[in-house]
Write a structure and sequence with these properties.
alpha/beta; Urease, subunit C, domain 1; 4-stranded mixed beta sheet; elongated
Length: 199
């Protein structure tokens, strides 16, 4: 089924997805006229290729992402450092569930690819199940590990024939995205599937 994704502030970069593949990229009006039967998804903000987060191991193997049911005891924010390692040492089985929650947080920040050498099977499985691409780490890492690293690392431009993998951010332009960060994500699409939606 054809799905046409268009964002309010980037109508010239609409994406026509045919399942897991991009069928076309171009102005919304042209794509809509050429494919009148396509389902249309309208988004606020801008549509981008999505982000590479270079901190896969740090965020998925060395950070504990609490279950909402643990909020009273552990809070809701990711836990790093020695405290996270102590949690995993006490109960290694918690790594898998934490990695799955960590992947969901990455998706909610427009991440469609991660980098860094993942060694723990539960983290690798969580990445594979979500369909996240695995890329190479840049030579210089952008500051401390974060769900919204500074600077953000955008993937190469989208093109017909490529994977239907992209993200939408509720900002007016890329400058605002850089200023406000990846927490402005409203939708993430991987293999043509909407894997995260904020509203």
């Amino acid at each position: 089924m054809l799905t046409l994704h268009v964002a309010e502030h980037s109508p010239e970069a609409a994406v026509l997805a045919d399942g897991a593949t991009i069928a076309a990229v171009g102005p919304y009006e042209d794509l809509a006229a050429a494919h009148p039967s396509a389902r249309v998804r309208r988004w606020p903000g801008i549509l981008t290729p999505g982000l590479l987060n270079p901190y896969g191991p740090e965020l998925l193997e060395a950070t504990y992402h609490p279950d909402p049911r643990e909020a009273a005891e552990l809070g809701t924010e990711p836990i790093g450092g020695e405290r996270a390692l102590a949690i995993f040492r006490a109960d290694p089985s918690r790594l898998g569930a934490s990695a799955r929650r960590g992947v969901q947080r990455l998706l909610a920040h427009g991440t469609v690819a991660v980098a860094g050498e993942l060694r723990a099977r539960p983290a690798l499985d969580a990445v594979r199940r979500a369909g996240l691409a695995v890329g190479a780490r840049p030579p210089r890492l952008p500051g401390p590990p974060s769900l919204s690293p500074t600077p953000l690392i955008l993937l190469p431009p989208l093109a017909a024939g490529g994977p239907a993998r992209f993200a939408v951010f509720d900002v007016a332009d890329r400058g605002e995205l850089v200023g406000r960060g990846a927490g402005t994500c409203v939708a993430t699409v991987i293999a043509g599937r909407l894997v995260y939606r904020s509203r």
